[in-house]
């Protein structure tokens, strides 16, 4: 396999090892930035490395398979994903709302270090690509993707470590250290508002530099950048921008038909996928794969004893004629549902078959990171919140829902009822794809797992009030220590 070069924080990040092999100043699998940025041919390798980092094992931890670790964490913290057994313990303490409030936990370290790795690498590229020898079109594509990655990484982080963004407020609470150049030194946290300003600046510039062409769906083009912008605008309650960007992001991407929808969510060539991780058989992910935890049929200990299920209350809201209803078994006895057979896996009510590996001997599979359906849902929600645009909201919702359910009729709901219908469709459509914690926080909703199939002995926590300090991740203690307190902690 061709070795992919990745510049991990070349002098730009403050973390030391802290008893964990997180980041190195000069990693052995990287080359000097002075070599990489001599020409665009070599500079492309830095971008390729960032794409590969999306599914690279992090810090030797089985649960941290690149971005898939974040995706599973976000759903484990929510109410729609149900753990059916303790299994080997992976993601259980996150499910119980314990680890993201411990300053030395993997989930805090990982989400802080992982996304800052993208930021640090993006800073190197942005600072040096203009001086590289090569076609201007290549420079634009490389720089545009780096800017998009930086904006995306800050967006992912601020939703975890910062307070909820409130369009009616000052958003003056502490956000993150703002680093937009490959400099060394302790950087204090700036406000949530300042971080969002930088996110939007990065994405706006990326959109001006990127076109529709790209080498692979795992790369970022203008559609992906506009999808990022739509997500950010939705979180900031900037409804008009969210709706417009969502429409533009999905242009040219057809919704999946029923055959494609039930084939296992493992093939990024599916026309609906705007952005996804492409995994090759020679780039094995073993037990740090998304599919090693979320699929129904890969033979891992976690899946055999802890097949992931849907919240019963959510399942019961799915129409009987909706193709999505077939992705879960409400009885736990349907033998048509795949399970690991060697040894025999467990069956539980409401277990899923949404995610499947194509080869049960391998944990690999393409992972969806952005789909056209999400963009329809963003448009629908945003327009439902804009005065005079409910008809357009209903139509956007209808296009998606009718594709999944031939009996779905154009909604007659209005106001809060329409918004709630859209949000329910969002929960069903995006189940297991890493959105639920983010959605609960941005909507200022409580965690509520009561009266469902969540097991008290496993879940531990059934309610967390909206706005509680527990909705903020704690800053890793190593960052506090290594910056001599320049980076300060969130409320504990």
Describe it.
The chain is mainly alpha-helical. About 40% of the residues lie in helices and about 5% in strands. The chain has a domain at about 1-210 and about 445-455 and about 465-480: Alpha Horseshoe (Serine Threonine Protein Phosphatase 5, Tetratricopeptide repeat). The protein has helices at about 35, 40-55, 65-75, 90-95, 105-130, 135-160, 190-210, 220-235, 240-250, 260, 290-295, 300-305, 310-315, 370-385, 390-405, 415-430, 435-440, 455-460, 475-480, and strands at about 80, 175, 190, 275, 310, 330, 350, 365-370, 445-450, 465. The longest helix is centred in the N-terminal third of the chain and has 26 residues, at about 135-160. The radius of gyration is 22 Å and the shape is globular.
Describe the structure in brief.
Helix content is 41%, strand content 6%.
Main sheet makeup: 2 strands, antiparallel
Shape: globular
Mean pLDDT: 91
Would you list the SSEs in sequence order as H and E? Answer: HHHEHHHEEHHHHEHHEHEEEHHHHEHEH
Write down how many β-strands occur, each being a DSSP E stretch of 2 or more residues: 10
Going by helix content, strand content and strand pairing, the class is mainly alpha
CATH class of one domain: Mainly Alpha
Our estimate of the beta-strand percent is: 5-15%
Number of helices: 19
